[in-house]
Hints:
Keywords: Cell membrane, Membrane, Transmembrane, Transmembrane helix. By secondary structure, this protein is mainly α. It is built from 15 helices and four strands. The protein has one domain. The radius of gyration is 21 Å and the shape is globular.
Amino acid sequence: MQNTQMPLFTIERKTKASQVGMVVAIVLVIGAATMPWWAGSSWLREFNQIACYFIFASMWNLLAGYGGMVSIGQQAFLGFSGYLMIIMANSLGVNPFVAVPIAALLSAVIALPLSKLAFRLQGGYFAIGTWVIAEVFRLTFANISSIGGGSGMSLTALRGIPRATRESVTFWMTLAAVVATIGLTYWFLRSRQGLALLAIRDSETASESQGIDVKRTKLLVYVVAAFGAGLAGALYFLGNLRISPDAAFSVNWTAFAIFMIMIRGLGTIEGPILGAIIFWALNRYFADYGTWYLVGLGLLAIAVTVVFKQGLWGYIQQRYDIRLFPVQRRLIPRE
Length: 335
């Protein structure tokens, strides 16, 4: 006799907040795409900078917040990609806008051999090891005189392109990169590989016992994070028009990324978005205070993590059950 009993639970992957959020996001993206026609150059440059910080922070969050691999050296790929973009544009005649994705892809390629070194280390040693790799990159580029050495070099390949065209194309590329970062991260975390990544973060031993290829999954995330960091670097220096070893490989990139993530919530897609907005506001109105500004960022991050251990967004998510990007599947009792 066939069992026709209805299941007691249903599996929910979407929420009302996520559906409303999707509509709002589409409207915001369409509205933002019109900025080159009405916003000033300063606003376009600011968007480029904060968007690149957001992309970099999202990749760090993917690596550490979801993968459990805390790195303080992802700026190695950011600076490497920035330099490659300018070298290809200035010396090889590659269109600078075309050089951006190529440089990001090459950053992912170089991450493969570097992973052999980084994955030999665990925990805090992994974090320090990634920072050492970034410092090796910085010192190497600082000692190559053909690319400006320690003083860096300028992006001269854009001189023949009108300023308005250059700024508009850079803005649209950056906006597309932000949308792609959010969309692809969300898609990845909802896939089987994303579920495997979350399991590895919680326990590598238990994951292996369930048949998950831990090494392959960690390598995939490491390479994806390197690509994202490289994309952020190429776009940032495309808008900045100049690069130097100290700017490209500065540990401040990771420090600011950690600030944006910790203040809003580690291991959430929403965290870097809202963290980037807060960071932009603080940077815009308080950056002139120099060292005190950096001290204030640190104190604010400490205060938030002490009061809200999962960040501000983590608190909102738990208190009001608002999930704009629901990753986990939830069992909902049938009424």
